[in-house]
Structure formats: structure tokens, C-alpha cells
Protein: DUF3570 domain-containing protein
Organism: Alteromonas hispanica
Amino acid sequence: MTCAVTVLCHFLLANFSPSQGESEAVKHSQNAPSGVIMTTNVVKKKAIEVDDGHQHDYEEQWFDIWQRSFTNSMDFTVRQFDGWFYSKESDEKLMGSQARAQGRVQLAWEPRSGMLTDTDVRFRIRVKLPALEERVDLLLSDNEDETQDSAIRAARDTANNNRDRTTIALRFRPDQNSHYSFRIGAGRRDQLYTRARYRDAAAISENWAVLYDAEVYYFTRDRLGAELGAAFQYDLNPQHLIRQNNRFFYRDETDDWFWRHEIHHLYSLNRHNSLIPHFMVEGLSQPNYRVEEIYSGLRWRSNTVRDWLYFDVEPFVLLLREENFSPSFGVALRVEAYYGDVSNN
């Protein structure tokens, strides 16, 4: 799968020609990286980036052209797809609206004790379809578990986790602000599935909030499954935010629960740099409520070059039951690029 995605990225980049237009600004996120092809091409032209109300001139580089071309090419493709659903009525109702793609691509090298060649390619694409009144999205991702975006591959790809698989799905919402969503798609190695989810958040006080969700799904081979999640968030001050996540997965195939508890401390150094200490423990309910994995890391995240381009360095230690809980020390190096408007991702 990694090889296929890498070849696809090379093919796309090799065939994109520079196009006109401005790079779209991307909302800051605590997730992150992208596939980057090395080149020495520098365009001797000035571009403008808005930063806290001030404009900064910079020489447009090859990666600015790549990001703009990638965004425009993705948008062109999804507009052709969205066009299949247009009618005369929708043309009048959605005058000026256009289908658009948004997402991210990430490349990572995650060497650890005894595993110096561990690499990872991650991606997520979301396509909005105005012809369907923006109630239907097309989703493509390397992993169906949206709550584990920042985990290293070794922590995700364990014998107990069958969710680290490419998925493609159509997501339907009764309206754009609905807490309910429904999906049909394919994932977990060519299984068809359907999923229903409810997600909401509530403010407990000025500094405390809780985010909770529940979902049920059915896969053609793995059969019935369900998830329950709750995250408690404490906004200490503008620079510090602490979040504690709890998640339980019911698996009909093995008739047990897969669980995960984790805590993040988001410390903003400045507008472009942050530190994120992270501790996670996960395990199974059978044959007893026991730990299967322990992970701890300190992540430095920066987007000083461009708002849409992130670099991560994360020293970590990983302990797995299948490795007799022997500490495995490593460091994750990531580069990630966002494209399109990902403010709602």
C-alpha cells in the first residue's frame, strides 16, 4: 500500500504543470505532513502571505507551485465528478458554488530500536459536493480511525488493531450542522461497510469542555462493531490546553472490547511552533482487562516556512506486549502538506 501511494504521488507531481492563482490559506491544526519531491526550481516572483494581519513578501518556491497546482488539479477533478449530479434546478440554486477538495499528505520516517527502516505515508481527502446540497462528502483516507492521527505507525499497526487500512466512503448528513452522519464505503482490505455516527460537544464551564461520540457499523467479514468515545478538555490559558481521551471499540468477530486512554498537553510556543507531550495506553477486555501497548512521546511541531507546510520531530518510547514490553526508543520525523480549505476537516 505504501509503495502504491508513493508511486501515485510521484506520478501526480510529475504530470502537474504550474497554474495561475493564489495558494489557499490553511487553518492551523494540531495534526500534520505531505509527500515532497526534491527539486531546485525557484520561481523569481513575489508572493504574499498574511500573518496576524500583516503581509510578508517571500520568493515563491517550487513547493508553492506544487501546492497550488495540486489543489487546482484536485478541484478540477472533483468538479467533473460533481457535475454528474447537477440538474437545471441545482444549477440555479447553487449558482457560484463549486465542488472542492481538501486534505493532507504526510511522509514520515520513524526509526526505533531494532527497526531503523520504519516509514509511513498518510493521506486524507475530503470532497464537498454542492450538487448534492453539500450534505454528501466523498472521503478517502489511509486509516478509518480518525482519532489516532498523530500516532506512529508501529503504535497503530498492531495485531489487535485492524483499523489501519485504506478506506473510501460517501458520508451523508441530514444537514450541514447535523450531529448525525451516515457512511457507506469500502475498507479493511476490500470489505464493504455501513456506519452511523453521533458526535457532539458541551461546555461544562468557562475552561472545561467534553467532546463525545458514539457509532455503530457493520463490515461484511468483521461483522458488527461499535465505538464509544469521550474527551475531556481543559483550557488552562491561551498557551496551554490539556485533553484526555477515552475510547472503547466493541468487536463482534472476537466478542471483546478494544480500549484506549491517552492524554495530550498542547503547549503553544508561538504562532508557528508548539510542543505536545503525549501519553497513551491501550489494551483488550479479554481474557482480562489487560494492557497491550504503552506509548509516550514529545512532539515539536512547526510551520514557519508556510502556513500549510508542517514539520514534526517526536522522540518517543514504545512498549508492546508482543515484544514483552521491552522499551523501544525512537524518533519520528515528519513533513506534512495541507491543500484546499481544511478549516472544517
About this structure: Residues 272 and 303 are 5 Å apart (CA to CA).
